[in-house]
Specification:
This protein has 10 helices and 10 strands. It has helices spanning about 1-15, 95-105, 120, 125-140, 160-170, 175-180, 195-200, 260, 285-290, 305-324, and strands at about 25-30, 40-45, 55, 65-70, 75-85, 105-110, 150-160, 225, 245-250, 265-270.
Length: about 325
Amino acid sequence: MKFIQSFAIALVAITTPLLADAAPGYTRLKDTTLNDRPLTLSVWYPSDETASAKIGGNAVFVGTPASVDASTPTSRHPLIIVSHGGLRSAGDTGAWLSAALAQAGSIVVEVNSPRPQNGPAATGEIWQRPQDITRALDHMLNSPVWGDHIDQTDISAVGFALGGTAALLVAGHAFNADHYRQSCARRDAGNPDCGWYAGQGVDLSKTDVTPLEQPLSDARITSAVALAPEYLTAFDPDASSANPPFLLMSFGSEGLSSRAAGQDASVVSLDATAPDAFSVCTKAGADILREDGGDDTLCAGPQANRLAVHKAIAAKISTFLGEK
């Protein structure tokens, strides 16, 4: 962290654009092909037009500048589909990452899945998230506005936490469904929601995991990036052959074993903590989370450091996707 701290203050000015500055284009689409699971798609794309709004901001998190409804690209670009956050993350949680990847030259779609209303409804999110990625891809490729601007030979899935799990699943990595079902009885399972499930009266071991045993891969995905994916030890690298290139990113001491990651994975360990993958917090963010009974560690640490981590994450992802 010493390197980050040494120039973090300077990065605040560099990486926090004002509304008067140029920003990536942004528009919002709806996918209603499933009435009981409508998706909101936040589309970010290269632009040099002036920022007109901030996306994803609220009382806890600072929004990301965007040029809303800027002119659409005139050429083809890689497509990146982002699935960010866990079961109860707010919409546009990954706006900071989507914007950075768009300014690096891609069309980026953050999939905002509906938040499950209760524990029983949440148990299926692990297989619904990769299905959402496929739906978002279908929507973009079939769009009369966006379809012709996508390089269909360069389509990536990028995710954080449960979204990282979804990115690996949609990229075709073999997964032990029973491991998920037993994850609240195993210390190594990587399930952060067991306490919440218990409070909701959900016994995950009784969940019907049949949908998780069905193919969830999408052959159109040409690469994947998983940032601190959940349930990593449930993936079987020996059964995940001939998958597209993928990058695994972890935070600090949590690490990623080569056995869990697979021999063909590119692995990066970040000198940061998991909350650094969320947006920069407002000054009142930690207090608001604490008062509402939320996890105030999401706003822990100097926020200038978080900006530097964001820049490092976006740079590593862009480099990997550019070199694959």
